[in-house]
Amino acid sequence: MDSDLLRKYLHRQTTSGKAGVTITVDWHSLGTQGGHVEIVEHSPEWPLAFERESAAIREACGPWVVEVHHIGSTSVPGLAAKPVLDMMPVAAGPSEAGETVPRMAALGYQCLGEYGIPGRLYFEKDVDGRDVAHVHMFPLGHPGIRTHLAFRDYLRAHPGAARDYERLKRQLAVKHRADREAYTDAKATFIEGVIAAAMC
């Protein structure tokens, strides 16, 4: 490994899997501090981080989680984003979702309950004081699954809409740098419009 690649992978977290297998997650390109909103250029490392962390989640949660999706802006190639990984595990059912809480905690995730969306379990993960990952877990059949995937897939298929979304995010990140909730609320109209177009 050359020196540039070595520096890139110096910051990592290792999770133990079964049979002695380890899953190494590189958080180098992810994370915000102090809850601040910042938008950075898309990194090719984000899909790799998702693959590694989703594998750790599937390993830890076993049969209770049937699939894990990469969602949010980090899942759209070329789209600038907050450097926080958004993932959506789908649990086999509501009770199975509850079974995952201690297993997610073992991976470093704090469960914040439904966090405003009935039926969801929301988790956040910090690494070295940086907010690096958000997990939105829904039970199989929850309408939130289709909504999240429709938004992601529409932006992937419509570069113009993705550019409009990026422009809006950059503007709002300047305006609401210290207020993540205000930043999120200010995006709602645009997001609702994209979802309506995607699901019509």
The major beta sheet can be summarized as: 6 strands, mixed
Text of the CATH class: Alpha Beta
**Number of helices, counting only DSSP H or I runs of 4 residues or more:** 8
**In sequence order, what are the helices and strands, one letter per element?**
HEEEHEEHHEEEHHHH
Strand content: 15-25%
Task: Give the termini distance in whole angstroms.
Answer: 49 Å
Number of domains: 1
Inertia-based shape: globular
Fourth CATH level, the homologous superfamily:
Beta Polymerase, domain 2
Rg, Å, rounded: 17 Å
Total strands: the figure is 8
Any low-confidence stretches, pLDDT <50, length ≥5? 1-22
Using the 3D structure, state the CATH architecture: 2-Layer Sandwich
Mean pLDDT: 88
Amount of helix: 40-55%
Derived structural class: alpha+beta
Could you please say which CATH topology applies here?
Answer: Beta Polymerase, domain 2
Produce the secondary structure layout.
Elements: H1 3-8, E1 12-16, E2 22-26, E3 32-33, H2 45-61, E4 65-71, E5 85-91, H3 94-99, H4 101-106, E6 109-111, E7 121-127, E8 130-139, H5 143-157, H6 159-175, H7 180-186, H8 188-199
Parallel strand pairs: 5-8
Antiparallel strand pairs: 1-2, 3-8, 4-5, 6-7, 7-8
Helix pairs in contact: 5-6, 5-8
